[in-house]
Amino acid sequence: MTLAVKIRLLALIIGVSLASATSAVPAPRALVSMVTGSITSQPIGHYEFCQRHADECGIRSRTAPAPKVTDYGWNAIHDVNSSVNDRITARTDMQVYGREEYWEYPVDAGDCEDYALEKRKELAERGFALSDLLITVVRKSDGEGHAVLTVRTSQGDFILDNLNSDVKLWSDTDYTFLKRQASFDTGRWVTIEDGRDVVVGALR
């Protein structure tokens, strides 16, 4: 066997080995559920909301795995997300309430956190546990703060958003996730990633 043939054969063997090794490494998969951290500051709007609705902000739950959602549950999630988005008009807190960062159940208009509060309330009325309905603060790609509702399920954390009527897995959105309500206490918040405070007020 000539030297040239040996070199070609060695190159072929190395190439096949590298291809096999590459194919054996699984492609990275996005996390279906958020990884939360330590207790963090409560948004001022939620703190003041809790002063007005104290009975809603001291509910404690045992830490439990996210539940399996039935077909009825998925229909409810999609229905509530679309229904609230359709019937509530997007307005700033200043336009509706005459002040910034005022979190409240909307009547016919509201800011992003008001949409999230209403969706949380309506899903709870349909049988979802509050420990699985978590208001979440994110940062949009333009740097603006925004609030959405996270629904914990055994299939992952899904986002209900007033800017989009599609219900998406959190890792399929373009947001940077900062913090959310704790699943074990409706009045506490936990970090997601860096957890920095932002003002939430996105309309579009």
- The shape, in one word, is globular
* String of helices and strands: HEHHEHEHEEEEEE
Structural class: alpha+beta
What is the radius of gyration computed over CA atoms, rounded to a whole number of angstroms? 23 Å
Task: Determine the strand fraction and express it as a percent band.
Answer: 25-35%
Which residues form runs of ≥5 with pLDDT under 50?
3-7, 9-29
* Number of alpha- plus pi-helical segments: 5
Number of strand elements:
9
Mean pLDDT: 86
The largest β sheet comes out as: 7 strands, antiparallel
**Strands ordered across the widest β-sheet:** 1-9-8-4-5-6-7
End-to-end Cα distance, whole Å, is 71 Å
In helices, the fraction of residues equals 25-40%
Please outline the helices and strands:
Elements: H1 3-24, E1 36-40, H2 44-52, H3 71-87, E2 89-90, H4 93-97, E3 109-110, H5 112-125, E4 133-139, E5 145-153, E6 156-161, E7 164-169, E8 176-182, E9 185-192
Parallel strand pairs: 2-3
Antiparallel strand pairs: 1-9, 4-5, 4-8, 5-6, 6-7, 8-9
Helix pairs in contact: 3-5
